[in-house]
Specification:
By secondary structure, the protein is an alpha/beta fold. The protein has one helix at 2-22, and strands spanning 37-42, 45-47, 54-62, 67-70, 75-78, 84-86, 89-93, 100-104, 112-114, 120-124, 126-128.
Length: 145
């Protein structure tokens, strides 16, 4: 008799434990980042979410023969006065739920500059903020040029 009570209590406890845990959201390992990753100079290849955020220490440049894919959810954090020059093919395709974020580490960075005939860029669901680039005559540029 006592043995049956113990079995019933164990089964009831197991049932309650399983029902309580079933409502929890699971964590997708792809949503976890192992960053930060420091970058400067020439860039190409892929900026993946696993290595985000990317800390841009100085200007970065995508060469005319290069291509760079930036994955959804990636964050690029630019040091003051750093800029991103694109002479090759840039694909930065975020999603509504996982936008790509370009921002300054401290105050301002100098923006995204798409140059020459070979320079092509696809920007979808990207947030670009904290850009300020002033010319000699005091006029300012936009975030993406």
């Amino acid at each position: 008799m006592m043995f049956l009570r113990i079995i019933n209590l164990l089964l009831l406890s197991l049932f309650l434990l399983l029902t309580a845990c079933s409502g929890r959201e699971s964590v997708n390992p792809a949503d976890l980042s192992s960053g930060p990753t420091e970058v400067q100079g020439a860039v190409e290849g892929r900026f993946d979410f696993a290595h985000s955020p990317y800390l841009v220490l100085d200007d970065i440049m995508l060469d005319s023969l290069g291509a760079l894919i930036i994955e959804p959810g990636v964050e690029l954090i630019f040091s003051d006065s750093a800029r991103f020059e694109v002479h090759g093919v840039l694909t930065a395709a975020g999603t509504k739920d996982r936008p790509i974020h370009f921002r300054a580490a401290d105050r301002f960075w100098e923006g995204l500059h798409i140059r020459q005939a070979a320079g092509k860029a696809l920007l979808e669901f990207c947030i670009v903020e904290d850009v300020r680039l002033t010319t000699v005559n005091g006029a300012g540029y936009g975030a993406v040029e």
